[in-house]
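User: Predict structure, ligand adenosine-2'-5'-diphosphate.
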Amino acid sequence: MKEYQKKYTLSNGVEIPKIGFGTWQVKNGEEAYQSVALALKNGYIHIDTALAYGNEESVGKAIKDAKIAREDIFVTTKLPAEIKTYEEAEKAFLTSIKNLDLDYIDLYLIHAPWPWSDMGKDCKEGNVKIYKVLEKYYKLGKIKAIGVSNFSPDDLQNIIDNCEIVPQVNQIGYFIGMDQHETIEYCRAKSIFIEAYSPLGIGYLLANEDIKIVAEKYDVSSAQICLRYILQKGVVALPKSTHEFRIIQNSELDFEILEDDMNFLDTIKGDPRRWE
Ligand code: A2P
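Assistant: Predicted complex:
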């Protein structure tokens, strides 16, 4: 088995493949269908989508058409950040499961603690309400693992204090330069597993000269260094690409970055992402 297909174990015993194929900004229809189909054809066994991406139907169709046994594929989707009531959350979950045409979801996450149009807003009460929907369907076996995304330690503590099940996952923006120290320390202490979205800094990290130097040394691409770095931190990485050669390249991670080079990569600081 290749490194990217190997699995970590979540606090509830559910196994999660180390690399998930990301689908943010991948358009519903041909683009989402083709990129997920290419990923599955090339051996990916973990797909990450969200109701808010608008591509669940195409993602679900690509999964169905790949004819992979359900238990051999790990599918994540997310409850839209704007939804903060129980009724709407339940409706959204049922919509996702229908869009994907699956009997169960492997991992279901609250997409963010606040609406994207009002980042930082205190939605603690609402988050507790909607988390109870996750708990309900988890107990019914319709979700195998539950969690959150973009949650700070404070947002997580609110869930832990007011709900029954400690989230099993927190999916955050994590890549070389963006060490998320405080959140990661908190999550480790509570056995909340970290997933890294934007592992290539939405592509901008690939222009970094220091990463290029390390990539040359190992005779791999900068993208492979970025992904391997995340795996060596014990974190799931969720790269995405719409090009087959990159989809394949992003799965070739069977090499080891030496400790000195990991330490060097740790010295890189800053967020290269540009939000045009
Ligand atoms: P494309 O879809 O044209 O291949 P992130 O996963 O951090 O959000 O980064 C995604 C971006 O990085 C996409 O624009 C994608 O472009 C690009 N990308 C993904 N994999 C690679 C790679 N191996 N080499 C170069 N660019 C990549």
